[in-house]
Amino acid sequence: MTAAKRIRRDIIETVIAAGRGHIAPAFSLVEILLVLYNDILNVHPDRVDDPDRDRLILSKGHGCLALYAVLARQDFFPVEELQRFCREEGILGGHPEHRKIPGVEATTGALGHGLSIGLGMALAARLEERSFRVFVIVGDGECNEGSIWEAALSAAKHGLDNLIVLVDYNKMQSYGAVDDVVGLEPFAEKWRAFGFAVHEADMEHPEVLRQVLLGLPFEPGRPNAVICHTIKGKGVSFVENNPAWHHRTRLSEAEIAALRAALAD
After folding, report:
1. What's the domain range around 9?
2. I need a surface site. Which of 86, 151, 236, 239 has the fewest CB within 10 A?
């Protein structure tokens, strides 16, 4: 089983155990998170409070099942904890919680806040003369929030080339296509107009993102943005680009069997 398929299988088993969860928004994040944790981030489960560690903020907090599965497989906490998702005795809630879950750098879920938090962390790194970087993953629908663009303006003003925004551009929001809700194109040009150095990555080929991020910072004195072209629900054909799978409760036995079959070895 590939690493990406294993993470998706973990997500499904977590939802089955809990009886609820955001499936499709988590699936589109998997390759992004695997590239970051396997090849880019300077983080270690034995040093979660290291002041020089890189920070990752999942601003689209409803995609947390992917983050939880990756953190568990990276030994930040036992894999068995996934089976206690959304249970009173567990540490994993429906959105990430800082200081409760090892490896989670910010409590998120109310969309539009993560980039501002990351901005503050990146400024702190400069003031404290530390070399850590701050990565913030935002959703494309989240980019409808004005707070995203206020933070972007401020990041450019301060020349924070230690701040990296990754957009999970799966082109679907909770109830429909991004273009039908509030279109974002020309998306890359918007980020450039706000002072960012911008790259794009087709997540059908994760190596592209890996190579892009190995080139950080893209331009000295400018914050960085990577538009990651993903597929909402990626990995299971009947989940892909299907708004009905944004969040699910009480999966039927037939649905469970179909999901497990799609993600089998």
Report:
1. 3-262
2. 86
